[in-house]
Amino acid sequence: MLRVEKHVPGDFCWIELATTDQTAAKKFYSELFGWDIHEFTMAPNDFFTFKMDGCDVAAAYTLPAEQRSQGVPAHWNLYVAVENADAAAGRAAKLGAKVLAAPFDVFDAGRVAVLQDPTGAVFSAWQAKRYIGFGIKGVPGAFCVADLSTPDQEAASRFYEQLFGWRIEKEDENPAHNYYHLFNHNEFIGGILPPAFRDPAAPPYWQIYLQVSDCDAIAQKAKSLGAKLYMPPMKIEDIGRMAVMADPQSAAFAIFEAAQR
Predict the structure, then answer these.
(1) Does the reported pTM lie above 0.90?
(2) pLDDT band, very low/low/confident/very high, at 200 (cuts 50, 70, 90)
(3) Which one of 7, 50, 162, 193 has the minimum C-beta count within 10 Å?
(4) Domains along the chain?
């Protein structure tokens, strides 16, 4: 277990669930991962955080009615740490991104901008002030990595390399199976999925992974709690096991069990 004191720029630093049913979300995630719940009111939507060992691991809020009426489903939001949210948003726009929400202060916690990369995937840039984001990592139930699902790996690579300085390594010369590895300050943080691993009918999105000690057991438990398995547990040679699912409100996420070394 590693308690986090600060996130370096370019690191994934926070995840937030936009849900259509807070009561059901609390039950599902607390039973699945053993997360504790800390509630407080944040206008305009009720907002709460999930904790482990007293450290924040995620947050959740009610998906606004306006977004629901527009067909936006329950989903997980991903945040990237930046030194300056205004500068990051400005640079992202010059690189072809859309600024969906211009930088604004979240009380005294930090400053955030909501962005859509040139291929269509949405993420947020977080400038920490009082609040850094994840307070713990390296344990079951904590966020570990994220994968980008996009129809244009090359365009996405150029964008994120220039915006965050990520180093990107290609795994295979076969375009259909070429997983792009993402590194921030030489630390592996996720990847860009190859075409063979994405649903062409789905819009581009960032998929979060939560660490588990037993992928098969957690996947089965999630199913018993009402989750839908999109991809049952599968082995990734020399890496570990993973599964992809959606919670009972249809918010998609993945779980990952690292291989024993």
Answers:
(1) yes
(2) confident
(3) 162
(4) 2-128 (3.10.180.10), 139-258 (3.10.180.10)
